[in-house]
Amino acid sequence: MVSDPLVMPIARQALACYDLELMKVENPPAFVQLRPGGIVAHLISLNDDECCQGLGWVRPVTFFPSSGSFPGQDSSPQPKGPSAWSVTLELGAVRCAPTPEANRIPTGDEWDDTTQAVMDDAAAMRRAICCLQDLYGARRVLAGSWQPLDIQGGCVGGVIPVTILGPACDCAEAGETSS
Questions:
Q1: Phi, psi of 176, rounded to the nearest 5 degrees
Q2: What is the spatial distance between Cα 1 and Cα 71, in angstroms, rounded to a whole number?
Q3: Contact 89, 146 (CB under 8 A)
Q4: Mean pLDDT for each 10-residue chunk of the chain (179 residues)?
Q5: Is residue 149 helix, strand or coil?
Q6: Backbone φ, ψ for residue 16 (5° rounding)
Q7: What is the structure's pLDDT at 146?
Q8: What pLDDT, on the 0 to 100 scale, is given for residue 72?
Q9: pLDDT recorded at residue 14
Q10: Interatomic CA distance for residues 22 and 65, integer angstroms
Q11: Across-strand partners of 149?
């Protein structure tokens, strides 16, 4: 069995920082988890309404060799393999959009409450990035821009990417290559 010494330790640390910060919001999400894939489906659970109970996640997005040009990707081969890898994660959260009963539209107060919850989650993302800077060093953590998510399945929220300079792979542990 081969364990991932690069992405998963960083993702788990990001999740720990994010979970801690989300617990500080007025109405913390009920679910805070690692999620794989190209996107996070907001209503994937069959047992619980993750969206309306609140869903926060850390999603591994990409990783690439970044041997001296963080946060850029190496543009030439490294004779001894990459000396460092950049790992990009997505911190995200969704909340239930106002969904009143039939024959009524959401009130301004309902939209205000939802917007407040989404912005509280965004503030938790920023604080989690500060936590990662404390752990990895400010020069090794680069936050992207927060982006709102369109309403999907009655859920609304936002995401922010964060790229962290991780360790090098250990090429000595790699198996023989085939030709």
A1: -65, 145
A2: 30
A3: no
A4: 81 98 95 91 67 92 86 80 87 90 88 95 98 95 96 91 85 51
A5: strand
A6: -60, -45
A7: 98
A8: 86
A9: 98
A10: 31
A11: 157
For residue 84, give both structure tokens: 């460092």
What span, in angstroms and rounded, lies between the C-alpha atoms of 84 and 155?
37
For 59-93, b/e burial (b = at least 16 CB within 10 A) is bbbebebbbeebeeebeeeeeeebebbbbbbbbbb
Contact 93, 55 (CB under 8 A): yes
CB 121 within 8 A of CB 22: yes
7-169: CATH architecture: 2-Layer Sandwich (3.30)
Provide the residue ranges of all domains of the chain, joining segments of one domain with +. Answer: 7-169
Contact of 35 with 14, CB cutoff 8 Å: no
CA contacts within 13 A on the Cβ side of 80 = 6
Q: List the structure tokens of 147.
A: 């982006």
Question: What does the alpha-carbon distance between residue 86 and residue 147 come to, in Å, rounded to a whole number?
Answer: 21
Between β-strands 55-65 and 31-34, what pairing exists: parallel, antiparallel or unpaired?
A: parallel
Cβ(66)–Cβ(85) under 8 Å?
yes
User: How far is 125 from 62, CA to CA, in rounded Å?
Assistant: 19
Structure tokens at 73: 């990707």
Q: What's the angle, vertex CA 72, arms to CA 66 and CA 77, rounded to 5?
A: 50
